[in-house]
TrEMBL record:
It comes from the Bacteria. Its main location: membrane. The keyword Transmembrane helix applies. It comes from Leminorella grimontii. It is found in: Membrane. This is Ligase. The chain crosses the membrane at residues 12-31, 37-55, 67-88, 100-118, 127-145, 165-181, 232-248, 326-348, 384-402. The lineage of its organism: Bacteria, Pseudomonadati, Pseudomonadota, Gammaproteobacteria, Enterobacterales. Keywords: Ligase, Membrane, Transmembrane, Transmembrane helix. It is a multi-pass membrane protein.
Amino acid sequence: MTLVKKMKSNDSYHISLWNKCLISSYIILYFLNNVTRYKNCVVILMYITAIYYLIKNKIKIFDIVKNNLTISLGLFSVSIVYSISISIDPSYSLKKFFDVIFSKILVISFIIPIILYSEKKEEIAKLFIYSLIISIIPIAITDFWQYIKEYNVGIMPFTDYEHKYKSDALIFIAPTLLFLWKKNTIKIKIIVFLLSLIVGFMILGTMQRGTWLSIIVPTFIWCILKKEWKLPTIAIIVLSLFLSIAYVKNHEQFNTLFYKLQQTSSSHRYAGGTQGSAMDLILENPIKGYGFGDNVFHKVYNDRIKDYPQWVFRESIGPHNITLSIWFSAGLLGLVAFWYMLIILIRNCICGFKNDSSPIVKECWLLILLILIGDYIIRGAFETVYLGNIAMLMGFSIILKIKDE
């Protein structure tokens, strides 16, 4: 009998390890470029594992779909289906729906809870937090390797915008350092300080004010909630020293960086700029919308540019605002559904942070909240943020909510 129990215990351990490794691999690889083959392998294994658990363990799918998070996600998906029906290019919109909404958001948002259904909520929270922390290493390696290649052809750091595509990754991983900072050991604080220097360098290297603000604001929120001011004080001192030395030693090399730090203009976003022109088109058709997908926006913009001589850009570069992008695509229904989904997710994060008895789970809820605010609220006001990013946040929020209930 003891042997049987031991064998069952070993099986449970290996199954749990498989589940965690699978989801952790997905998170670590998510923001890396040029590893599509490995990403696809991990996702296929996730599909197979989720289907196996649904059949073998008879996971009650009703437990996953009966919460308000799933309902809000479903309503948003319905609004995008509607946008396909009114699209000026239905076949393209349908393709984008399956590429982004179905496979990248809906499926992943459900697969994560199915795979982690049998795990303890504390283990789920640790998995999310530490996977993001580990992902700093490959992201930093690839970023610095890019700097080395650029340096070899005469391109110095902080002189171009080739690193801006790292913005989403940095918004996700930067708040994890705040979690580590609360560990009361000197060794951990030294590690956090060194990682912060690396991540800080990468953040500056994006040359994107929206990205900087998307990290500063969540950090400020964390400082208020945790009543912690040592880390931001140290960060300000280190940043000031770096900028002062850079200005004195080689001001010319850092001209672009200093320009971005001092810039007060909107970079042609409003009036006849990216967001202003998008608003002009939306107000022509505010209820119905035009259809889902970037190419739909580009086509409408380029067709109508002759009627708007005040527009700054004579060819479409996108609305540079996630809310305007959804409103343009799916009309008023899409706008309401999108913000309903965000508000429900924010509300669950706040409730989880305030009410959960487990410290690590509270930290996980807070981390999801900070990432959501940084990526979709702050950066979303300046850029058309990739919608697929929400799947990871939604998937972990759903499983944590299930465990609370």
